[in-house]
Amino acid sequence: MTDEDLLSHLQAQEDDSSAFVWGELSEQRRAALQEYFRAPYGNEEEGWSAIVTSEVQDTIEWILPDLLEMFTSNDKAVEFEPNREKDVAGAAQATDSCNYVFYKQNNGFLILYTAFKDALQLKNCAVHWRKETRRDRDVQVLRGINEMQLTLALEQAGEGAKIEAATPVQQIPMMDPLTQGPAIDPGTGTPIVTTIYDARISHVVERRVVRVEAFEPENLLVQREWKSPLLDECPYVARILPVTLSDLRQMGFDEVTAEDLAASPDSAMSTDATYRDARAGAGDEVFRNVAEVDSEDESLTRGYLRIEYVLVDFDGDGIAERRCVYRLRDRILSNDECGQVQIATASPVLVQHRWEGMSIAEMVSDLQKIKTDLTRAVMNNATMAVSPRKTVLTTPDGAPLADVDDLLDSRPGGIQRMRQAGAVTYDTTPWVGHQMFPLLEYVDQMGERRTGVSKMQQGIDPNALRTDRTAYEAGQLTSAAQKRIKLIARILAEILMKPVFQGILKLLTEGDMERLAFRLRGEFVEFDPNEWRDRYDMTSNVGLGTGDAPKQHAMLMGILQNQMGIAQSPFGPLLISPKKIYNTQAKLVENAGYKNVGDFWNDPGDAQVPQSGPPPQVLIEQAKMQHQGQLEQLKLQFQAKEGELKRQQDAQLELVRAQAQQATDANRQEMEARQHQLRLQQEAELQALRSQYDDVRHQREMDFRWQVEQLKAATDLKKAEYAATKAADPATTNTAAAEIQADVTQP
Length: 747
Description:
Layout: H1 3-21, H2 24-36, H3 55-72, E1 78-81, H4 88-105, H5 108-122, E2 125-145, H6 147-157, E3 162-173, E4 175-176, E5 181-182, E6 193-214, E7 220-222, E8 236-244, H7 245-250, H8 258-262, H9 271-279, E9 302-312, E10 321-328, E11 331-337, E12 343-346, H10 360-386, E13 390-392, H11 404-408, E14 424-426, H12 433-451, H13 455-458, H14 471-508, E15 516-520, E16 523-527, E17 537-540, H15 549-567, H16 572-575, H17 578-591, H18 616-666, H19 668-724, H20 730-745
Antiparallel strand pairs: 1-17, 2-6, 2-12, 3-6, 4-5, 7-8, 8-9, 9-10, 10-11, 13-14, 15-16
Helix pairs in contact: 2-9, 3-5, 3-10, 3-14, 10-12, 15-17, 18-19, 18-20
Protein name: Portal protein
Coiled coil: 624-651
Pfam families: SU10_portal
């Protein structure tokens, strides 16, 4: 296939798709926008009520907050699941990185708000993701540096860096390192000075990033016959992108001229886009079909770029491949093979076998018309009841018998002049508003049944606090009303969010992306997308909304209590791990509205609870053996001390005897004289020693018996405590065993 054949094929596909999108579908969207903004229907009459009720707007604005909360209440709206054991780490990194790219780098909240509101209003939304080179200008401010330091800073800034400004602030003498004084110029003999600067260095950094954006549904073209909201296999999908010549040059299309771009207008007029632009105040001045070269600045010349994803056999191998084509109306700028359609669309209500679905605006459009007519009738009836019609008598020739100017002036307390009494009478208009109110209530009930947006959900149901209505009944009514909204959330998750995140992952793993560095749950991480697979299974973690938060909290608390109970049973190591309990606590934190679980709990990872010590019975037996050993040791110590004391006493007796014998030999006569006295003294001393020995021995025996009784009492007490607590939980048993062991080993 030649480029001319491809161009003709693309133009034919664009014309066929735009005939439907910018024809019948565009008219339906225009009507939905008018009803959302409460534009007049065109059947208003002067002097009568022209109110337009807001069923479309109210319903959309009540559903939108619940949807946004479901997708933004946690930091993992979509989670990748590994297909193989070795992909676990890669899938976790891909989950965190893709959520970071979507929510942080691309303002995911605004993307979701725009896309969801488009879907609720205009049948379907459109989200496009693609790579682009972002040029960020970094500025480094330096103060108090010399020329050498400025040159070094410029080199360190990298290629392309330049000095934006360098302002000299002062001159200081250069110091001589040898003399420790000012350096002198040998030629002039004057001090050498150096200039100090305040400078700014700028550097343009190019980064390859993934850009995600929600664009106008009228700029999405899909093959007319396509039957699924999933576009990955659709033969033709395109986005009509308004661009300037500057935009094209940033994309790398430097060969495009202003005349080329001006010759690429939109191929048809989209009525919903025209209405949208008219509301913006542009009116007929908005450029859509006619482009022209900007006379003042060619870079601002506007036109329309087609980004098309088409299935076509361009290489002639007999198999149609997916190609991504960037095209002006009559010129192909690039034609590359690609692996995916980088556009996703979704509708809140799917229509089987069609890519476009139904909007919430369509579901309540007729109700808004009905309620508008009923409300106008009530307002008109009230006006006629307060300001009734007047009947004025006239003369035979038609002249009124009352002053007409007075009749037309209805100011409070005004006068009314009549030439004849009773010339003016008032027609009585009966008040029928009370008969219309049940009809208005019936219309509201129809809207509740169609959309699931009820008065109870909005918090304005006067019967919600009836004494005969139980909390369970009120909860059941609220839950039933939210089922429709939950279904919408599930559709958006499966049809919109999954393709977007799968597309982001595929772009990140194509090989030309830089490493991603960002803060995750309180810690800075860095991931290399080249280490991941380009496809994983996915799970959408869609929250349950505000109405279910208390119920969700109660269920999670019940799960946590069961986990803690099982953890203390013999089956705990088999059924419960710290990671499981952490997951429950993380869900509780997220349900409370906090995104960073790391502020409250540390992730244990694969860590396990340390194994406990030996069984309590073993500890008790060990304690008994240690007690017995201590008793034997005390006995041996007592016997050793008793023998030592006896030896000391015997030695003292021998010493006394030796001294007495020596004294006798030295002075026998004196000895004989004092023999009787000495004998008495010796006997007294001997008796005293014997008494002292008996006292010490008795005290030792008492101390020994007391220690034995203390050890026996401690053992009996621990046995009693164990017997009393043997039915307790393992944690208490382990504590008792530890106390016994501590007492036993205490010196």
